[in-house]
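Figure S7 source data.
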Amino acid sequence: MTINRRILTLDEFTIQQLRQFPSATGELSSLLRDIGLAAKRINVEVNKAGLVDILGDTGSINVQGEDVKKLDIYANNQFMGVLKHGISCAGVGSEELDDLVVFDDEVSNNSKYVVLFDPLDGSSNIDVNISIGTIFGVYRRVSELGKPCTEEDFLQPGVRQVAAGYVVYGSSTMLVYATRRGVNGFTLDPAIGEFCLSHPDIKCPPSGKLYSVNHGNFFQYEEGLRNYINACQRKDKTNGGPYSQRYVGSMVADVHRNLIKGGIFLYPGTIDKPGGKLRLMYECNPFAFMLEVAGGKATDGKQRILDIQPTELHQRTPLFIGSKNMMEELETYFKP
Ligand code: AHG
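Tokens for the predicted AHG complex:
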């Protein structure tokens, strides 16, 4: 039997990367492997979502005699479980949890990373079979090794992430992650249950023809932004307009598409919610890191997302993210 060595699994890829750094400990590779495992487990349940009325909803008992949890709680527990039992993570913050979780045991206290994640983003789309995703950001802790991690390890600006990524549960399931060295995408091959390198060294096209925004909130946006959105629809655009509007309502799916094809995603503040909806630590920082490594840009309309110093775990921020040239054009509409 011949083995197709053109296929590189997530584990093989991370080990290859590791070999380029003789001093590396392998903790980050191990962490990414743990995240891949959680993603595969979540994927199995996401694929069964339409069967929930047949197999049992929240609060019921499944055939193994276990409680059937809501998918987002399930995803949260899977992520926490693999990271707690791995060797690389000292603690986590999750969009599903009010407070951060410190894994206070001997192995975890000596682990150098903490992880912030949104276990299932776009969960309102689950019931209607539309793509959803998981988002994560990895930080090197700043507190002393050998002791439990602290809040200070988590409240770091996004620029200090060492890795960030997402999983999109779509027509296929993909895990995309970035380190400072590049962005790489892996598609889950269900035949062998492995994420396989399918999108090496992803670069975000500098321009695109897609814009993604919730048009229902149009009259709640500030004037400069309304002018930009109107310009997106004009044929006389010098840079190839009009653009096509694409908005899934799952940020992972929307930004993934724009990362690959080129485009811009906008989730602004509104009159009612000036701080916007999206969470800085769980959603915006990981995507801002990935897009910047891929050549794109991300701001809150005033400053780079990655430079925002967080003051609380669950803080929100407006987000504008996408292809470099489109972002630079948007910025001209915000000028005073
Ligand atoms: P949720 O997880 O509550 O479904 O929120 C999803 C997020 C994000 O993924 C998406 O882009 C945005 O909220 C959509 O919000 P609007 O419905 O307000 O456009």
